[in-house]
TrEMBL record:
Location in the cell: Membrane
Any one of the GO BP annotations: monoatomic ion transmembrane transport
Pfam families assigned to the protein according to its UniProt record, in alphabetical order: ALMT
Gene Ontology annotations for the cellular component aspect, listed alphabetically: membrane
Protein name: Aluminum-activated malate transporter 12-like
Transmembrane spans: 85-105, 112-128, 134-154, 166-184, 196-214
Native organism: Solanum bulbocastanum (Wild potato)
Family from the record: Belongs to the aromatic acid exporter (TC 2.A.85) family.
Length: 535
């Protein structure tokens, strides 16, 4: 009886929790529904604020669709084109892109593919009509197989896949539609003409909108985006070095912030993720007309090469950033000995990167003194500071109590059982403890689970117990900082090569002073250019 009462009480408790959980769930859904309109408006505003050109492009697409829909809405135009006017609407939806280069690439591919497919389909139809009804069906089927297989195989050719893949797809679609429909429809020539005209009208409206009304050039986007990369890398280097030598309070505040607010991460992330954007923008820019005052062909592929060099440069900054997140850190008292030369060195590197970015943005050659004497002086000061503290890096030669890995491991067992931290002075024992520890491991399987827990701890103790381990993390940090200076030469060479091929203006010291004053008088951009889906 008592058991039944306890069971009934348990069931009643469960039944009481069910409506409560449903009510809480409905409250959560209600709160989300209340926040949804505000969140949607905030997102729409943020997207337009990041790049106002998106608003203009949306209006251009709306105007284009309105214009092309007149082929359906106006009776005289509809009588001329009929139901084939829908192809003009489809062309505007598919072809009109964010930049002029992307629109030209798709529009010309679509027009060229339609023209070639229509011409070849008429040729196939002309030959097929000279034969009998049965042989005509066989000939059309064989033509479809041969043309379809050949065109599909051509899409695997790298040059065609890169530049004309969309045109080949349109060619296949149009050719099959005309050829297959010609077997059952008598007046297929008229239908093909009307479709070609409507597609031409759609492409013409797209080209008019993208070239003459607030055009967005892929080449300009690539140019400005490349210049902004240097500023992002410069901010990352300065922020990384400043954070490495920051005090404890600043470090705690940094740990509480997320990666989205990390200036180091945001600076190099855009550079590392820019490969697809660079290649696509360079491809679309090659389709654009030469709208600048110079009529020569601009070397857009050189921007792609410069982007590859900047990514390799960014990998070093990623490694430098990793030094801030390692398990073993150099004490701040030791870091303070090398703070001034490291900060000055990072400042000179950041200054050189900003100068390179400004030279690309203004289409001029960089200063001949971009690698100033201050950079070499900072390197020499860092070298002298490291040489002035030899014991931190090479250890004491007169130390008779040399540590071995065996003593570290043997002492590590007892230390790990009591705590997970061990000091350098506490690790002093002989090899007998190691032998005893090994014999205990062979004694049975009861300690297997415990040993698995100790292995990572022992490896950490073995590293932290080395005599000069406190300076090893800083040695890695300093070597990466020097590696950044070495890779800076490669970046400068690539920028100079770009300036030579693109015919940048010669460096003028007076104009450079004016640009510095103008830059100091205006606020710096808060973020790097964003990548749009249309690009």
């Amino acid at each position: 009886m008592v058991v039944e009462m306890e069971v009934n009480n348990g069931e009643n408790t469960t039944n009481n929790w069910v409506p409560i959980m449903k009510k809480l769930h409905m409250n959560v859904i209600g709160e989300k529904m209340k926040k949804f309109p505000k969140l949607t408006c905030r997102t729409i505003w943020r997207v337009g604020k990041e790049d106002p050109r998106r608003v203009i492009h949306s209006l251009k697409v709306g105007i284009s669709l309105t214009l092309v829909s007149l082929l359906y809405l106006m009776d005289p135009l509809f009588k001329g084109f009929g139901s084939n006017a829908i192809w003009a609407v489809m062309t505007v939806v598919v072809v009109l892109e964010f930049t002029a280069g992307a629109t030209l690439c798709k529009g010309l591919n679509r027009g060229l593919g339609t023209l070639l497919a229509g011409s070849l389909a008429f040729l196939i139809e002309y030959v097929a009509t000279k034969t009998g009804h049965v042989f005509r069906a066989i000939f059309i089927g064989a033509a479809l197989f041969f043309i379809g297989a050949t065109a599909t195989y051509m899409r695997f050719i790298p040059y065609i896949k890169k530049n004309y893949d969309y045109g080949v797809v349109i060619f296949l679609l149009t050719f099959n539609l005309i050829t297959v429909s010609s077997y059952r429809v008598d007046n297929v020539l008229k239908i093909a003409h009307e479709r070609f005209y409507t597609i031409a009208i759609g492409c013409g409206i797209c080209l008019l909108m993208c070239l003459l009304i607030f055009p967005n050039w892929s080449g300009e986007d690539l140019h400005n985006f490349t210049a902004a990369k240097f500023e992002g890398l410069a901010k990352s280097i300065e922020a990384c070095v400043n954070e490495y030598f920051s005090d404890d309070e600043q470090q705690k505040a940094k740990e509480n912030s997320s990666d989205l607010e990390d200036p180091i991460y945001n600076g190099y992330k855009t550079v590392l993720d820019s490969k697809s954007f660079d290649e696509t923008s360079a491809l679309y820019a090659s389709w654009e007309p030469r709208h600048s005052r110079h009529c020569y062909r601009f070397p857009w592929q050189q921007y792609v090469k410069l982007g590859n060099v900047l990514r390799h440069f960014g990998y070093t900054i990623v490694a430098l950033h990793g030094c801030l997140q390692t398990e073993i850190q150099t004490p701040r008292s030791v870091r303070a000995m090398f703070k001034d030369p490291c900060i000055r060195l990072s400042g000179e590197v950041a200054k050189a990167l900003k100068e390179l970015g400004d030279s690309i943005r203004n289409r001029r050659h960089c200063s001949p003194e971009i690698l100033s004497d201050h950079l070499h002086e900072a390197l020499q000061d860092l070298n002298k500071a490291i040489k002035s503290q030899p014991k931190l890096f090479i250890g004491s030669k007169n130390n008779t109590n040399k540590l071995t890995l065996a003593t570290v491991i043997s002492k590590g067992q007892s230390c790990a059982l009591n705590s997970r931290r061990v000091s350098l002075s506490s690790v002093k024992t002989d090899t007998s403890a190691l032998l005893d520890w090994k014999s205990k491991l062979r004694g049975g399987s009861s300690t297997t689970h415990e040993n698995l827990k100790l292995r990572p701890t022992l490896s950490k103790i073995a590293i932290t117990s080395l005599e000069f381990s406190e300076a090893l993390p800083f040695a890695a940090f300093a070597s990466l900082l020097v590696e950044i200076v070495a890779r800076l030469d490669l970046v400068i060479e690539e920028v100079e090569e770009l300036g030579r091929i693109a015919h940048f203006e010669e460096y003028n010291d007076d104009e450079h002073v004016v640009e510095i004053d103008r830059k100091n008088s205006r606020p710096l951009p808060n973020q790097l250019p964003t990548q749009d889906s249309g690009d």
